[in-house]
Automatic annotation (TrEMBL):
Classification via Gene3D superfamilies: YmcC-like
Pfam families xrefs: YjbF
Protein name, entry field: YjbF family lipoprotein
Taxonomic source organism: Halomonas heilongjiangensis
InterPro entries given in the database record: GfcB, YmcC_sf
Lineage: superkingdom: Bacteria
């Protein structure tokens, strides 16, 4: 077992497993949002109905507009889905857990994909290590393919960001930096990812990434953000710029 594998498994043991709340079968998001969406007999309360109704419209942006909760629009494997935040945890709320109407789930850490479920293949973990060189770092990915086999891979990564330009998001338009992440995987493969982030707070508003060598593209855009202006003010000068976070 190599050094990266041992370190990753120790990290898993320390962190434990955090999942979005999926307990209410008639409205999986209800418990994660702290709401009582189900009533006796399997129907919906008025609060539950307010969450389900937007999924009956066809456009993800319209659904996001109709919901007052933090949300993002994600596209993968040819499918587009509105995902609503079901849970937030970790230091300064850095871990967010998202669920679509079909129960596909996505875990973001610092706005970047960390784990996923409900897809043909699943991301089991991803993290970045700084190397000491500005704009360069190592990215580690752990995933399970459609046959159930788990894999680990490491890439040398670089990040370059352009000057802010307007980007149309589901519910607004913002001037964001477009950052290009180039990955050179240990198996010789290469991946180019793109992230759009706020130039001051460095909050990530959108992404178009492949999380592991040969994986499906995952695209997302934040509709309603989960952070506050006060949180942005506290983090606007954090970080060295060496990694996307």
């Amino acid at each position: 077992m190599d050094h990266d594998t041992r370190r990753y498994r120790r990290r898993l043991q320390r962190q434990g497993r955090r999942k979005a709340a999926l307990a209410c079968h008639c409205l999986p998001l209800a418990l994660g949002l702290g709401l009582t969406g189900c009533v006796q007999g399997g129907g919906l309360s008025p609060m539950g109905e307010s969450l389900v109704a937007p999924w009956r419209t066809g456009d993800a942006a319209e659904r996001a507009e109709a919901l007052p909760y933090a949300s993002l629009v994600a596209t993968s494997e040819g499918n587009e889905a509105l995902m609503v935040m079901a849970h937030r945890s970790g230091d300064n709320g850095r871990d967010t857990y998202w669920q679509a109407g079909d129960r596909a789930t996505l875990h973001l850490r610092d706005g970047l994909p960390m784990t996923s479920a409900g897809f043909d293949a699943a991301l089991l973990g991803q993290w970045r290590d700084a190397t000491g060189d500005a704009g360069r770092y190592r990215l580690h990915a752990h995933w399970r393919d459609g046959d159930g086999t788990e894999h680990l891979a490491t890439a040398n990564a670089s990040l370059e960001c352009d000057a802010p330009r307007p980007l149309a998001l589901p519910l607004t338009t913002l001037a964001l930096e477009r950052c290009t992440e180039r990955l050179s995987w240990q198996n010789g493969g290469r991946t180019v990812n793109r992230l759009w982030r706020d130039p001051v707070s460095r909050r990530i508003w959108a992404g178009d990434v492949t999380a592991w060598p040969g994986g499906q593209r995952l695209r997302w855009q934040v509709a309603r953000p989960w952070w506050t202006d006060a949180e942005d003010a506290a983090t606007s000068h954090a970080g060295s710029g060496e990694t996307p976070e």
